[in-house]
Design goal:
It is a single chain. By secondary structure, the protein is of the alpha/beta class. The chain has one domain: Rossmann fold. 35% of the residues lie in helices and 15% in strands. Helix 4 packs across helix 14.
């Protein structure tokens, strides 16, 4: 299934069930002695999103998880981890899939250093921004790397330096962590990439989708399409925008211009542009990748690991037992947050 179309490389590993209901993920056991965190739900304005042609909201929902000691130590500052959600979901659903707050509290109870965890919502009219820069979707890459970081540093007691900021993400969020991480090593100091989608160019999309997509007359019609076709629209909005083609303002990989669109999509594949950012990648203190052994994204995740190895860029890579989503909560608790506990620079005490 992963090789049938351009869609497959992006989203189908999640499964169509993700489009229909809350994905069921393994709930880690409660950790004895875990202290409660505080979850704040805020809005962050995104100047980078101003004027986007889809009219995706410029004021974005953001979940901020404050560690147990935050309210008791008013002079203390904390490192921050930015955690990016996948396609078709927003920050709230992502938090449920990784079982926040239990997993964050569990990680701290097991010994991870306290940190702030930030979960921004990057869902769009087509259910995913791809964390890319597009006049159609909005410049979500800059929103995450600049607008969001600046807002969090202003509002909370953070350690406002790259060595104290981590970037993580799963699936589309793993793509975002890879893309943004390569381009913004001046902002982030450590990366954890979970089951990233969209790393490499893929074959032509399914012919059966062409008629349905080519005949679209409005965003309202687009919203009624099935999961795979909506995912193609998300990719096109992000990677082949066209401000001269209302009402969708995008080019699709069909017809006379399909080779051009395919090239534009390929230009957004991290395995194609990694060579341009080797210097940035060398700046990271830690880079970690993981993927389930039953995940269709396993091969490309391994290729990213191998590409980093070719350049001598230190990274860890693990293939663990599981599907695309089955154990992401446990991974977040027992691997992601402990990784950042080891690699982020905390406050000197």
């Amino acid at each position: 299934m992963m090789h049938r179309s351009l869609l497959a490389f992006t989203f189908l590993a999640v499964g169509v069930v993700a489009a229909q209901s809350q994905v069921q993920t393994h709930l880690p056991d409660a950790v004895a002695g875990a202290r409660p965190v505080t979850i704040e739900r805020i809005k962050v304005h995104g100047p980078a999103l101003k004027g986007n042609l889809e009219r995706n909201a410029e004021d974005r929902d953001v979940l901020v998880i404050l560690p147990p000691g935050y309210g008791f130590n008013p002079a203390r500052r904390y490192p921050v981890v930015y955690a990016l959600h996948g396609y078709f979901i927003g920050a709230e659903q992502w938090s449920k899939e990784i079982h926040v707050p239990r997993t964050v509290e569990g990680a701290f109870a097991k010994g991870a250093a306290e940190m702030i965890v930030v979960m921004p919502d990057s869902k769009t009219i087509h259910n995913g921004s791809m964390y890319s820069s597009s006049v159609t979707t909005g410049d979500f890459e800059t929103f995450i790397a600049r607008d969001l970081v600046a807002a969090i540093d202003t509002r909370y007691r953070t350690i406002a330096q790259r060595e104290s900021r981590g970037l993580a993400g799963h699936s589309m969020g793993g793509y975002g962590a890879t893309r943004i991480g390569m381009k913004h090593a001046d902002v982030f100091g450590n990366l954890y990439i979970m089951s990233p989608c969209c790393l490499a160019p893929r074959p032509m999309p399914r012919a059966e989708d062409e008629a349905a997509l080519a005949s679209l007359k409005s965003l309202e019609e687009a919203a009624k399409l099935p999961f795979p076709q909506r995912a193609q629209l998300a990719s096109a909005s992000a990677w082949s925008p066209n401000p001269a083609k209302p009402p969708l303002y995008l080019d699709l990989p069909y017809g006379a211009g399909q080779q051009d669109v395919r090239a534009r999509w390929a230009a957004n594949a991290p395995l194609a542009f990694l060579d341009q950012y080797v210097g940035n990648l060398r700046r990271y203190r830690g880079i970690a990748l993981d993927v389930g052994d039953q995940d269709g994204l396993k091969a490309d995740t391994q290729k990213l690991h191998e590409a980093l190895n070719r350049y001598g860029i230190a990274n860890s890579f693990e293939i663990y037992p599981g599907t695309h989503v089955s154990h992401i909560a446990l991974r977040f608790q027992d691997h992601v947050l402990p990784f950042f506990s080891r690699t982020l620079t905390g406050e000197k005490r």
